[in-house]
Specification:
This protein is 38% helix and 34% strand. The protein is of the alpha+beta class. It starts with a helix and ends with a helix. This is Nuclear transport factor 2 family protein.
């Protein structure tokens, strides 16, 4: 009986001392990396050091962009906004480790932009998710509803066409 008791204690101590891996957390180095990437985006500093060279980015699409294409995408969109970025309004971050051992960071953010041409402010929720391997982002997905931005850009284009048409008629 004494041996069984000692064996039980040893077994409990052994299992208690084994490191349990976290499958879900709201604090991790990967989350801090995502926060830094968001800060860099807000500062219009397109730092690619967070990304693996082979990273694939999918923004509202099943077609991916390379790291360079993603940075070009952001820079090209700068032309439309006098200001833009993620707000500090209740951001949420979580890291999960899947059953397959993949590490993902999910975040839910609020994005706000002011259209350069009209001054209209647009605010929208955005969901971003990042897969990590060896401390680098290897996959990035972003989901948001761009309808309001697209409609505003279409209205700006229509206004420019109408103005050009009026100028052409006035010069006759």
């Amino acid at each position: 009986m004494k041996k069984l008791f000692i064996l039980s204690i040893v077994l409990v101590l052994f299992t208690a001392c084994q490191e349990q891996s976290k499958r879900y957390t709201q604090q991790s180095p990967e989350i801090e990396t995502v926060k830094k990437a968001i800060q860099q985006y807000n500062a219009k500093n397109y730092d690619t050091s967070f990304y693996a060279d082979t990273c694939k980015t999918y923004f509202n699409s099943d077609k991916f962009m390379t790291v360079e294409e993603t940075m070009s995408f952001h820079k090209a969109n700068e032309n439309y906004y006098s200001s833009r970025g993620f707000t500090d309004n209740d951001p949420e971050y979580e890291m999960v480790v899947t059953d397959d051992g993949e590490t993902w960071v999910n975040c839910w953010l609020e994005w706000k932009g002011t259209m350069k041409e009209t001054g209209k402010e647009i605010t929208m929720p955005v969901h971003l998710t990042y897969r990590f391997a060896d401390g680098k982002i290897v996959r990035q997905l972003g989901y948001w509803d761009p309808t309001e931005v697209i409609l505003e850009l279409q209205a700006i284009e229509a206004s420019k066409k109408e103005l050009s048409k009026e100028e052409a008629e006035a010069s006759k």
